[in-house]
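User: New here, please read:
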Amino acid sequence: PPAAEQALTAMKVIMGEDGTNVGQNKLSQLARNSAYFRKKLMDMGLQVLGNDASPVVPAMLYNPAKMPAFSRLCLKNGVAVVVV
């Protein structure tokens, strides 16, 4: 199926089996972006949880009334979030 082939191709790129360093470059950029995002959230006073090496950055807002506005602002700026 096409979805499975796409997933396999993506894994090959990430592992460098396509003969390029595109996957490694993307992983490095993701790590830099995640660290930058985590630092900026902490600089703004948010409590940031999780592993520093992970691209998943859980942040605690503690104010349910602000969560929808936070979600909309992130979406407007191209940042994928899940608000719970």
